């Protein structure tokens, strides 16, 4: 199990990796003109993905979405599964990503520090914006019955900057005046769940998306565990565009995303516990207003994601 990592170092490594891709960060497209300036800046679009699941699993799913978007925009789309949440914000701020999917909390800081504009998010088959919940679980025979019982106990969280895997559980502990909880950052949602099932911690965060994935894989039997806390519903991740880019490009991306067929987002939707998915739906900064309040309540800054 990993403890809290140096986010500054990780962000720097990720930024260098993105720079090494050899793609111009000039949003004007340099010597390219016409189509390049309107819907294909720099000759390709770099699409950042947060590491909320094993990249080896995420990449094939997002390749389907990226190929569909590529066809709509007539422009190559290059996927970038970044190292961590802070690295993704840094990459967009430094002009290394044209579009990116952020976690709800990551979007708060991407909006403030990287001019990220929320365009769309994931919907169910009826066209309603999808949501998920954070949760804290313990073994079924644990004496821990509530958050207050976690005092002096060990709790596995996902990674710094995660909405459901870090901020919301910590905010719940803060607002119920529970202290002296031994926080362990496992490195991701699957790793936090694994820490619990391997008996390495007394409790662990397991959000509703990870729960469904683990149940489908057969790696978690809910009957052997008990949930002692659940968050309010959280709107699913927004796909954003850099607001520094040409408004015509931003509008082209928004339209293309909204025009994608449900099949193009189905594999990604499965990771987000949306089955069956509908087309993507429009969202705005206002959609994520509760997350801005959460960041304020925890006195979080971009260094915390």
Structure write-up:
This protein is of the alpha/beta class. It is 39% helix and 17% strand. The chain has eleven helices and 13 strands. The chain has helices at 7-19, 35-39, 55-73, 85-93, 104-114, 163-175, 189-197, 208-217, 247-258, 262-271, 289-297; strands spanning 45-49, 77-81, 99-101, 116-121, 131-132, 135-139, 154-157, 182-185, 203-205, 225-230, 234-235, 239-242, 281-282. The strands form three sheets. A six-stranded mixed beta sheet has the order 2-1-3-12-4-13, sandwiched between helices. It has a five-stranded mixed beta sheet with strand order 8-7-9-6-10. Strands 5-11 form a two-stranded antiparallel ribbon. The protein is globular and about 60 Å long. The two termini are 19 Å apart. Residues 1-35 have low confidence and may be disordered.
What is the overall silhouette?
Answer: globular
Q: Report the biggest beta sheet as strand number plus sense, adding barrel if it closes.
A: 6 strands, mixed
Strand order of the largest sheet: 2-1-3-12-4-13
Q: Report the count of strand segments.
A: 13
Please state the CA-atom Rg, rounded to the nearest Å.
19 Å
Give the helix proportion (percent range).
25-40%
| Chain oligomer state | single chain
Averaged pLDDT: 87
Beta percentage is 15-25%
Number of helices: 11
Structural class: alpha/beta
**Low-confidence segments, ≥5 residues, pLDDT <50?**
1-35
- Write the H/E string, N to C: HHEHEHEHEEEEHEHEHEEEHHEH
Q: Roughly how many Å apart are the termini?
A: 19 Å
How do the strands and helices of this protein lay out in sequence?
Layout: H1 7-19, H2 35-39, E1 45-49, H3 55-73, E2 77-81, H4 85-93, E3 99-101, H5 104-114, E4 116-121, E5 131-132, E6 135-139, E7 154-157, H6 163-175, E8 182-185, H7 189-197, E9 203-205, H8 208-217, E10 225-230, E11 234-235, E12 239-242, H9 247-258, H10 262-271, E13 281-282, H11 289-297
Parallel strand pairs: 1-2, 1-3, 7-8, 7-9
Antiparallel strand pairs: 3-12, 4-12, 4-13, 5-11, 6-9, 6-10
């Amino acid at each position: 199990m990993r403890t809290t990592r140096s986010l500054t170092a990780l962000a720097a490594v990720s930024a260098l990796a993105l720079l090494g891709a050899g793609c111009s960060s000039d949003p004007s497209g340099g010597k390219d003109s016409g189509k390049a300036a309107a819907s294909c800046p720099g000759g390709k679009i770099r699409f950042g993905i947060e590491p909320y699941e094993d990249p080896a699993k995420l990449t094939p799913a997002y390749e389907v979405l990226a190929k569909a978007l590529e066809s709509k925009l007539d422009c190559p789309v290059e996927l970038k599964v970044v190292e961590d949440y802070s690295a993704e914000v840094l990459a967009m701020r430094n002009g290394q990503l044209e579009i990116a999917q952020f976690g709800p909390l990551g979007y708060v800081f991407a909006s403030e520090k990287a001019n990220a504009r929320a365009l769309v998010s994931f919907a169910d088959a009826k066209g309603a914006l999808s949501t998920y919940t954070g949760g804290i679980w313990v073994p079924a025979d644990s004496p821990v019955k509530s958050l207050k019982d976690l005092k002096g106990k060990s709790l596995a969280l996902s990674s710094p900057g995660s909405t459901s895997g870090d901020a919301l559980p910590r905010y719940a502990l803060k607002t119920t005046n529970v202290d002296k909880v031994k926080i362990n950052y496992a490195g991701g949602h699957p790793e936090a769940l694994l820490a619990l099932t391997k008996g390495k911690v007394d409790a662990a965060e397991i959000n509703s998306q990870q729960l469904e994935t683990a149940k489908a894989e057969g790696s978690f039997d809910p009957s052997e565990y008990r949930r002692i806390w659940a968050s309010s519903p959280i709107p699913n991740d927004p796909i954003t565009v850099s607001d520094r880019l040409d408004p015509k490009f931003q509008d082209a991306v928004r339209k293309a995303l909204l025009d994608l067929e449900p099949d193009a987002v189905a594999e990604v939707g499965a990771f987000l516990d949306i089955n069956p998915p509908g087309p993507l739906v429009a969202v705005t900064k206002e959609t994520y207003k509760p997350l801005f309040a959460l960041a304020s309540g925890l006195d979080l800054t971009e260094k915390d994601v």
